[in-house]
Amino acid sequence: MKKDKVFQLNQTAVEKLAEEYATPLLVLSLDQVKANYECLRTYMPRVKVFYAIKANPHPEILKTMIDMGSCFDVASAGEIRTLSEMGVSGERFIYANPVKTGVGFKACRDCGVTRMTFDSASEIAKIQKELPGATVLLRLRIDNSSAHVDLNKKFGAGREHAVELMLKAKEAGLDMAGIAFHVGSQTILADPYLEALDIAREVFEEAKEAGLDLRILDIGGGFPIPTPSMKFNLPEMLKQIHARLDEDFPNIEIWAEPGRYICGTAVNLITSVIGVTERGGQPWYFLDDGLYGTFSGVIFDQWDFKLISFKEGDERVAATFAGPSCDSLDIMFRGRMTVPLEVGDLLLVPSCGAYTSASATTFNGFSKAEFVVWENVNA
Ligand SMILES: Cc1ncc(COP(=O)(O)O)c(C=O)c1O
To answer: Does any ligand 1 atom lie closer than 6 A to the CB of residue 151?
Structure first.
């Protein structure tokens, strides 16, 4: 896989795969997963990667990341146990959910997970009771209205409470080790990271004055994947972040929790048109995958998927695309420009590996799209 190339099937492969397997079909490139991981390691060599498996917990992706030596960001008992059963030992986890459950703590005890985040006094008391002496990072709230998905509306302690909370954690006997933040998903500029690093540096200094010796900084996820409408220079962005880390946090262990960046570009969906009608003078195309399936990212991730048709011709129409279920909510795109389509036509959806199959359901009895691994198929 070339460094600047993103996995995208050509027409011949799409047709061959659709014939050999039923659609909807998800095609996963493990070489792309490896290239994405290596890219982060190349441009941010000091950063220890904890793959946020919520973005895509497909076993082959997990296996690949395990073999490459990645660590993991987990948010639930299920995620902890899945990885533990695959042989990942407790020290390769960060339980990065600031509000943990009883079964989550039990999974930590069973699987040897001792590192976690918190953002409230109530969570300190819970950790003290369930996992005394655990190593904790304070999740800081970072406002970034430019992020595609703002993850700071729900989590993160205000900067003004940071030192007070960290002292409380220390008094409770926890190993108060550092700070974590998340600038928001699909952040396409270095600036929000640099602003967050400014705040983190101030908090590190205040903590030192208060007698706390912090040793870990977790810069979260948020690293972007290319889309037709978002232009950015990732190597430049990563270099800028890394240079600032070297400048301001020279002796601190740096962690990151990329989700989308690792898996987003590694999956292509092949879906078929299963119905065509016309309403209000506009064509409607019904696909065999929808909002309750791979396109769940339209709702949960506010993602705008690219649809590629291999049909020729200059005519373009504004169309509505709907999924296969009987729910009228199951409409993915309205007014989407496309060549006119017919039943049986195939569409390719590239770069749909993050927050898609992970949140798909079997609502209405429709199976989730099957996966095949690109490197194992003959197309
Ligand atoms: C705590 C935490 N870390 C990492 C991630 C992954 O973020 P991204 O997919 O933007 O890299 C998320 C996403 O929800 C998160 O909540």
So the answer is: yes
